[in-house]
Amino acid sequence: MMKRFWDKVEKTPGGCWEWLAHKGCDGYGTFRNGSMVLAHRYSWELHNGPIPEGLYVCHKCDNPGCVRPAHLFTATQGENIKDCIRKGRRVQARGARNGNSKLTARNVTDIRSMRCHSYVFIASIFKVTPENISAIIRRKTWKHLC
Predict the structure, then answer these.
(1) What's CA 53's distance to the chain center, in Å?
(2) Start-end of H helices in the chain
(3) Domain ranges (residues) in the chain
(4) Count of CB atoms within 10 A of residue 8's CB?
(5) Regarding beta strands 9-11 and 17-19, do their DSSP bridges make them parallel or antiparallel, or are they unpaired?
(6) Global pTM?
(7) Are 39 and 31 contacting, i.e. CB atoms less than 8 angstroms apart?
(8) Alpha-carbon distance 97 to 95, whole Å?
(9) Cα(115)–Cα(22) distance, rounded to whole angstroms?
(10) What is the pLDDT of residues 94-146, one digit of tens each?
(11) What is the pLDDT confidence band of residue 92, given thresholds at 50, 70 and 90?
């Protein structure tokens, strides 16, 4: 099994060891070892043993396709998020690009032009809460739009 795993890795001296086989749309390699596992997690376990419960296997190199053990470390979810923020990789999607958004930039422009109406009335038109309408009009949300 180990040979089959390492046959799918391109080792670069001093750099990342890139997973050459299947990768998900997020760039993380996958490996079938009885069940489907993430390649970097499998590499960690080959070199360090089982991953302690509640911990993630993270990349120092920020390359999701890397399986080099020296580039991997374990961390809690909170530590992983802090690492991501510290490295400037956590970018919050704004406006309509945020997957939770129910509104478009055009909707927001229309909402702001209707500010003389009650927030309850505007919210009923756009199927959001009056609190959303208030935040949009006060520019607490959708700040990037004029």
Answers:
(1) 21
(2) 2-6, 39-48, 77-86, 105-113, 119-126, 130-137
(3) 2-86, 95-137
(4) 15
(5) antiparallel
(6) 0.62
(7) yes
(8) 5
(9) 51
(10) 677 766 788 999 999 999 999 999 999 999 999 999 999 999 999 999 888 86
(11) low
What are the distances in angstroms from CA 2 to CA 28, 96, 130, 135? 19, 45, 58, 55
Residues in the chain: 146
61 Cα distance to chain centroid: 16
As given in the structure block, the two tokens for residue 107 are: 């909707």
The pair of three-digit structure tokens given for residue 51, joined into one six-digit string: 């991953």
Neighbours of 89 (CB within 10 A): 9
CA distance 127 to 116: 18
DSSP reduced 3-state for 10: strand
Q: 37 Cβ partners below 8 Å, 6+ apart? A: 30, 31
Specify the CATH architecture of the domain 2-86: Alpha-Beta Complex (3.90)
- Cα separation of 32 and 114, whole Å? 56
Q: Are 58 and 84 within 8 A, CB to CB?
A: no
Q: State both tokens at 117.
A: 């109406």
How many beta carbons lie within 10 A of that of residue 128, not counting itself? 19
